[in-house]
Design goal:
By secondary structure, the protein is an alpha+beta fold. It has nine helices and six strands, in the order αααββααααββααββ. It has two domains: 68 residues, Arc Repressor Mutant, subunit A (Orthogonal Bundle), CATH 1.10.10; 125 residues, 2-Layer Sandwich (Muramoyl-pentapeptide Carboxypeptidase, domain 2), CATH 3.30.1380.20. The strands form two sheets. A four-stranded antiparallel β-sheet has the order 3-4-6-5, with helices on one face. A two-stranded antiparallel sheet has the order 1-2. Helix 2 crosses helix 3.
Amino acid sequence: MQPTRQEILDHLRREGQGTVKELGEFLKLTSTGIRQHLTVLERDGLVEAREERGRVGRPALVYRLTERGDALYPKSYDALANHLLEEARAVMGSQGLQTLLRRAAIRFAAPYLERLKGRALEERVREANLIIGERGCLAEFAQDGSDWLIYQYSCPFPNVAKRNSAVCILEVEFVRQLVGADARLVSSLLRGDRSCTYRVRKTAPA
């Protein structure tokens, strides 16, 4: 990252937002120079501008970090998730942890169930594939005889799964809830396979 642009990002991270004038005063640069850097940051999807009307004059453009820009700053979500899973296993045992993860999957799936209601299995598999994509994972599906296969090529929580493979139960149950049928994990990214592959059969989940 070019140093001046990093300083702009850091300022927006600290202050929450900033105008061209405020950034110019902070960095001791001209408005033209600030705008040039902001143009690059906008192009890269790291900042966004919104008009905000003040008491007088024309609306001012106020710049903020986008989600992508904010993601440049370290988060400890993976460490937190790993610690929570390990504590849950210590307190509840392995079976209790599995139950907890399945219950979490049901909650994750709940907002999507209305759009799946009343659909045939093929349509539910197709829609489940779209939902997996909406959650940021690359996926595709194919028919295999009377079964369906959903290939998920990326993991939503890879750093957690590497340390606590039990979390895979959550994703399997999530798929089962979406398709409304039995889904089994038959290949796994964690085991070095090309994808996490779910075999979907025409039976209701237990």
